[in-house]
Amino acid sequence: MTRPRMIATDLDGTLLRNDKTLSPRTLRALRTATASGAEVVFVTARPPRFVDRLSAATGLAGTAVCSNGALVYDLAARTVTASRALPVDVARKVVAALSAVVPDVGFAVETGRNVLYEPAYGLRLPEDAGAESPVACLADLWTADVPIAKLLAWSARLDADLLLAAAEQAAGTEAQFTHSGGRGLLEISAPGVTKAGTLAELCAGRGIPAEEVVAFGDMPNDLTILTWAGTGYAMGNAHPAVLASVRRRTGTNEEDGVAAVLEQLFGPA
């Protein structure tokens, strides 16, 4: 392919190594690409606070599509420039439908700034230490008067693929369901909100067609960008559903798979 004008990349399991760091090789490749005129956009399930830490550690700036497309974030200004929240009434319908088929499921709300969780939600992420706040009961999630970037559902019993299948059967028309590989963790957005939908709007505003975008990802929530972009690469460590749907492959995140492709497109760093 010719040199792309935009590089759209997932973070966990894709651009970042398993220890959540960016390797020197990958950082050099990104800087070479941007010096050649390409724009790098992080397209991630992560909230803005996570990309803030990445930006501080690497010096990378630009734009991030966060929370699976619910938020567009300017890293330099540390400002959300666009958002599509999940309506509270829709969130309540999804909770009722999913609870009826997965009795042990617990719920949390990602606001983009922090996570509010009810007692049945037992998942704790080390990187969210200091950003997680408990509420006394499930009903209190809806009285917090905060925008819902994502509704999170967690089960200690079901893995993410089984939980996704259960949710789509119970409430598939109510919201957008996906997962990014978290243990027993389902991510729920407003209807129609996907990584690709938000990225497409961003590209339209910049006059960049899909054919001039190269995308990288590893999980089911990345499938929309990998199939929308003119060129999509599945990581060598990708989820089976991604490997089955995306023709192009690169190395694993531990092998600097993104850097390997960028070095071919833009020359060695």
TrEMBL record:
Pfam families, per database record: Hydrolase_3
Database matches in InterPro entries: HAD-like_sf, HAD-SF_hydro_IIB, HAD_sf
GO molecular function: hydrolase activity
Keywords: Hydrolase
EC number: 3.1.3.-
Full protein name: HAD family hydrolase
Protein source organism: Streptomyces aureoversilis
